[in-house]
Specification:
Layout: E1 3-8, H1 12-25, E2 29-35, H2 36-41, E3 51-57, H3 59-68, E4 78-84, E5 91-96, H4 98-102, H5 108-128
Antiparallel strand pairs: 1-5, 2-3, 3-4, 4-5
Helix pairs in contact: 1-5, 3-5
Length: about 130
């Protein structure tokens, strides 16, 4: 599976605030937040679903990735999505698994780093839900 996703009763905004705190507790920061419906509306396209993308990073890990194999930088920063599902009517928090991405580099040193990052990010998501 390429993702790790949990469901929460929190609103999208509440889930993002909780994520920011739990990620910070694990030395990850949110570099950027994209509100997709707002961005699409700037182009005249309406999207009724609340869908956000957070790009998150641990600077120490990013440096390790880039000094071991610059192609690992293609997968930086990590992405977490937070959205209100039309099907469940609940908020979903999902992670694109770093292990899946780094496996494409075929570099075992990066894979070990990705496993550590994924474990930490899954824990932060679980704590935030």
């Amino acid at each position: 599976m390429f993702d790790y996703t949990v469901v929460t009763n929190k609103t999208v905004d509440e889930a993002i605030r909780a994520l920011e705190q739990t990620l910070s507790n694990h030395k990850f920061g949110v570099l950027w937040k994209l509100d997709i419906p707002t961005k699409l509306m700037e182009k005249g396209i309406a999207l009724e679903q609340d869908f956000r993308v957070l790009e998150v990073c641990n600077p120490d890990v990013a440096k390790k990735v880039l000094t071991r194999n610059q192609k690992g930088g293609y997968f930086l920063p990590c992405k977490i999505v937070v959205y209100r599902s039309d099907e469940t009517l609940k908020t979903h928090i999902g992670l694109l698994r770093p292990t899946t991405l780094m496996a494409m580099t075929e570099d075992e040193r990066l894979q070990a780093l990705a496993e550590d990052v994924e474990r930490t990010m899954v824990q932060a998501i679980d704590e935030a839900k």
